[in-house]
Write a structure and sequence with these properties.
The complex is a heterodimer of chains A (301) and B (438). Chain A has 12 helices and 2 strands. Chain A has 301 residues and is mostly helical. With 438 residues, chain B is α/β, with parallel strands linked by helices. Chain B is 51% helix and 13% strand. In chain B, the strands form 4 sheets. In chain B, strands 2-1-3-12-6-13 form a 6-stranded mixed beta sheet, with helices on both faces. In chain B, strand 4 and strand 5 form a beta hairpin. The chains are: A mainly alpha (301), B alpha/beta (438).
Chain lengths: 301, 438
């Protein structure tokens, strides 16, 4: 009888690589091939519906950085995402502290706070339009009734108030993502650390600052980056709250790409806008992955 | 040796599985979609118009034809917000529904990818008295039809008749009268804004500004394609709109309005009149029947250069690569039989206008208010007028260059001349970009 030898660990590793081959192929066919195809289109000049096309090399990419509207949309999108994500993190930390306190009906607050997560962005947009509409909105109705203002305010007509309105809607929709990640992290928080600090004379604020916050930081970082990516690609809320704003001031890169590619038939330029955002998004994704791996190694320790 | 053999067999097993998977994916990509292989099926993409009756009748006619010809008819109704994206997807990919109902102004732009319908058009129009001029302009390129004109909707001035009758006023016949009426209404009811139109990026604003520009003798480009957006006539048109804004006759949030805002504010009686399609009347008839009785509809008022309205129309198109030409021809000939087409327009109850002459006697248009829709058909102009419908003209309209002028004056502290010079530069850049594209 011939005995079969157990395969070596490196052999097992190799066979697991073989297992991945179908998925790698699928990945290549469904993601890489269309991406390369679109990148090639972004190097051409043609109008949707036209059969002719000419190679333009990086002309569309130069246009992205030299066209005032497009550049503004890129910057606006990044700034808006930065502001909303930072606001979300501050709001969530505040909620976490409040929820940490003994509040009546604490269990139900959790569910209520997660409610915005269940609403699609378009519904969120319409809800906030009901607040900031100049003639039928709740905000103006309250301010007019209480005598604070004499004439309705055009919230979505001006850059400052419009950004606040859109930002509020985006924060409202996105903060539950932070809450979920932070609550999950809190569930595994070793409470004895906190108690020990308090016994050693640390005030609740010091204990929160030096023990709880560093502990939550990895979760906050991950939530921050995920939220930033989602806000960078926001469309519905910005569209519903003023169609991109007067002169398109609220437009982000995604809306601009839609306007140029889909509505205005210049797909190569729209794709160039998309590919300009991609390296930035990839950088953020790698950062998230790095934090995840560092976080998990901390857990292991 | 045995281990090596085992490893080899593993490798070949997975290599075979991968090759099989790749083969399946390639086959799935290469074989034509099922619809193209099955002549007994016709897929139609229809644009959603806010009229249930119209949508139902469209489907009923299509199904009737399907039953008679033993063809399965599949209808996908696409909301108007998604219509551009869907149509672009079909054009870019070269596959999709067999018959596409899309915006008519897209047809000259996409003509190289679309099926030539000239023969079918000449046959289907025969029982009627021809097409309306705008319909013909928007669906043809070099005198060939690449789409079959279906219907349009009017952009009308919609008045709260109660507010007007309180002051003994009549709907405006000229732009000057409109200003006077707005001033009187504002003086009478300070919390109701008379001139309820957005000045931002919504469609109603874009159509209002374009029609007003034409009425004052201005345009974006002239008949030869020269940019004339900063002409003295255009300046006068903008001065008119800015006067409305400066006098507080337009709501303060108008720069942030979107498509539904004017409808909502009109039905909430927060504005006295607005510019919209007649669907606002249909909505009122459904939800506020008493108020609906007082609503008045008129065509755009007359300006120094005449009376104009912006045309939004829809047409049937098909991809040039379709293998179902005979089936499509058969369907379209049935669809455009006078009895079927007339019953479709009747079911719309005024939400849409016929683009074929000879339907003016239909029941909805006996309502004096909806007769404005028929008058509107005569004053409608297409995007880019007096130039042709081009991708550049459509881009100027869609990127709201006309509304940006107002924003630059009101919010960015530019003078009107500076704002118009900026708009001119923007238009020239757009036209230049499209000129580069072969």
């Amino acid at each position: 009888m011939q005995l079969r030898r157990r395969p070596s660990p490196s052999g097992i590793l190799k066979s697991t690589y073989y297992l991945l081959v179908p998925f790698v192929l699928l990945f290549l066919v469904t993601l890489v091939v269309p991406t390369v195809h679109m990148f090639i289109i972004s190097l051409t000049s043609r109008t949707t519906g036209s059969n002719q096309s000419s190679f333009q090399f990086i002309k569309n990419y130069v246009a992205v950085f030299s066209t005032r509207d497009i550049l503004r949309a890129l910057v606006t999108g990044v700034l808006l995402a930065l502001c909303t994500t930072t606001a979300k993190s501050i709001l969530t930390i505040t909620i976490t502290v409040l929820i940490g306190a003994e509040v009546a009906g604490k269990k139900y607050w959790h569910y209520l706070l997660l409610l915005p997560l269940s609403a699609p962005p378009s519904v969120v947009g319409l809800l906030w339009l009901g607040i900031f509409d100049d003639l039928t909105g709740v905000a103006n109705a309250l301010l007019l009734e209480s005598g604070v203002i004499q004439q309705p305010v055009g919230w979505l007509s001006h850059a400052s108030t419009g950004f606040c309105a859109i930002g509020s809607a985006m924060v409202w929709r996105g903060y539950p993502l932070f809450l979920v990640l932070i609550f999950f992290s809190l569930r595994r928080f070793p409470a004895q650390l906190y108690e020990a600090a308090c016994l050693d004379g640390a005030s609740p604020i010091m204990a929160w600052r030096h023990i709880l916050l560093p502990y939550l930081l990895p979760a906050i970082s991950v939530a921050w980056l995920l939220s930033f990516l989602l806000d960078l690609a926001e469309f519905d809320i910005i569209y519903i709250l003023g169609c991109g704003g007067p002169g398109g001031i609220f437009m982000n890169a995604l809306m601009k790409a839609y306007e140029i590619g889909i509505v205005s038939n210049r797909m190569p330029l729209a794709l160039a806008i998309g590919f300009t955002v991609v390296p930035f998004a990839l950088f953020v994704i790698f950062m998230v992955a790095g934090i995840f791996s560092r976080w998990s190694s901390q857990w292991e320790r | 040796m045995a281990i090596k053999k085992e490893r080899h067999s593993n490798f070949w097993k997975w290599a075979l599985a991968s090759a099989g998977l790749l083969f399946l994916v390639v086959v799935a990509v290469l074989i034509p979609s099922p619809s193209q292989n099955r002549p007994s099926q016709l897929r139609i993409m229809n644009a959603e118009i806010w009229s249930e009756g119209l949508m139902n009748e469209f489907e009923a006619i299509a199904r009737e034809w399907g039953n008679q010809n033993n063809v399965e008819v599949l209808i996908e109704v696409v909301p108007l917000e998604d219509l551009d994206a869907k149509t672009t997807g079909f054009i870019e990919s070269g596959s999709g529904a067999d018959l596409i109902v899309t915006y008519a102004h897209k047809i000259p732009i996409y003509s190289q990818k679309l099926l030539d319908f000239t023969d079918i058009a000449s046959e289907t129009v025969r029982p009627f008295s021809g097409y309306y001029e705008t319909a013909r302009h928007m669906t043809t390129k070099d005198e060939r039809y690449y789409g079959l004109p279906l219907y349009s909707w009017s952009h009308l001035w919609v008045y709260n008749g109660e507010a007007l009758s309180e002051l003994g006023l009549q709907p405006a016949n000229t732009y000057q009268e409109a200003l006077t009426i707005a001033q009187k209404l504002a003086a009478n009811a300070p919390r109701v804004y008379p001139f309820g139109i957005g000045l931002g990026r919504d469609d109603d604003c874009a159509m209002f500004l374009q029609a007003t520009l034409w009425a004052f003798g201005g345009s974006v480009v002239d008949g030869h394609g020269n940019v004339v957006i900063d002409s003295p006539e255009a300046e006068r048109a903008y001065e008119y709109v800015l006067a409305l804004w400066n006098e507080g006759l337009i709501p303060p949030g108008a720069f942030g309005w979107q498509g539904i805002t004017n409808n909502r504010n009109f039905l909430a009686k927060r504005i006295a009149f607005t510019m919209n399609s007649p669907t606002i009347l249909l909505a009122a008839q459904k939800e506020m029947p008493e108020f609906a009785k007082s609503i008045l509809l008129t065509t755009y008022p007359e300006g120094p250069a005449g009376r104009f309205s912006y045309a939004t129309g829809f047409a049937f198109t098909a991809l040039r690569s379709t293998s179902k030409r005979d089936l499509l021809a058969n369907f379209l000939k049935f669809f455009y039989q006078p009895s079927n087409y007339r019953r479709l327009i009747t079911a719309g109850r005024g939400a849409v206008n016929p683009w074929l002459r000879g339907c003016e006697d239909l029941e909805p248009f006996q309502d004096p208010r909806l007769q404005s829709c028929l008058h509107s058909l005569e004053i409608e102009r297409h995007v880019g007028w007096p130039g042709p419908v081009t991708a550049a003209a459509a881009e100027v309209f869609q990127r709201r260059i006309l509304a940006n002028v107002l924003n630059d004056v009101v919010n960015n502290a530019l003078t009107l001349k500076q704002a118009l010079a900026k708009a001119r530069a923007d238009v020239e850049e757009i036209y230049a970009q499209h000129a580069i594209a072969p």
